[in-house]
Amino acid sequence: MKERPILMSAEMVRALLAGRKTQTRRLVKLMDTGRVKLPGSHRNWHLEDPNVVKACPYGLPGDRLWVRETYYQVGHWEPVPGIKTKTGKQKWKFVPDRPAIRFDQPPEYRKGRHHKDPQTVAWHKRLARFMPRKASRLTLEIKTLRVERLQDISEADAKAEGIQCPGCQSGEHIACTDLVKAYRKLWESLNGTDSWKANPWVWVIEFQLLNKESKKSGKNSSVPAFLIKHSC
């Protein structure tokens, strides 16, 4: 079993916490030959090959993904001695002053380095890509994996992606419809206006959310939504 990080938007994290999200779709990176290469290896497969799932950079069934999400932490900024950016400016780094983090927005916080006052200790909003493993609160176990075209997503799959229809959100007892259209809107908001029209190949990762006990023991137990805290 291997563990790898995976980025999740705030909206999708909320769906995870609510127990609605059990799937995620990620772009397949193709070689110029149209084949899929196994990261760190010379091996590659055609998309039609049933073994192509071995090239998935997110892992295989049984592997785990720890979620990187936006978080808040108290800290300050310091210049990195002798290091410049690509544009020749001074390189800075964020330095945490407290180990604790929170996921709900503090009353006051900074979105990034304050140019006139970088070294004052304050709450800072930290992008998901900066989250260290120890700060992650959500771990997913991959159950199934497949490759398909983006537009092949079904209404049931869109629902498993965490998409809700207006009727579900209002509490009305009506059939879920137009979930694919809602997913398309979400996909385009994350990947660009023409990203849906391009109909790319995607990894379809079905997973189960694990709790802290199962992460330590290796047991495959899912987490009831009401047991998961929304903030530290």
Explain what you see.
The chain is an alpha+beta fold and 232 residues long. It folds into two domains: 3-68 and 136-227, Archaeosine Trna-guanine Transglycosylase, Chain: A, domain 4 (Roll); 71-126, no CATH class. It is 16% helix and 31% strand. It has a five-stranded mixed beta sheet. The protein has a three-stranded antiparallel beta sheet with strand order 7-6-8, with no helix packed on it. Strand 6 (71-84) and strand 7 form a beta hairpin. It is globular, with a radius of gyration of 20 Å.
Main features:
single chain; 232 residues; alpha+beta; Archaeosine Trna-guanine Transglycosylase, Chain: A, domain 4; 3-stranded antiparallel beta sheet; 5 helices; 10 strands; disordered C terminus
Mean pLDDT: 87
How many domains make up the coordinates? 2
CATH topology of the largest domain: Archaeosine Trna-guanine Transglycosylase, Chain: A, domain 4
How many β-strands, per DSSP? 10
Topology readout:
Blueprint lengths: L2 E5 L2 H8 L5 E5 L8 E2 L6 E2 L18 E5 L2 E14 L5 E13 L19 E5 L12 E11 L5 H6 L5 H5 L8 H13 L9 E10 L1 H6 L15
Parallel strand pairs: 1-5
Antiparallel strand pairs: 2-10, 3-4, 5-9, 6-7, 6-8, 9-10
What's a quick, concise take on this entry?
The chain is built from 5 helices and 10 strands; from the N terminus they run βαββββββββαααβα.
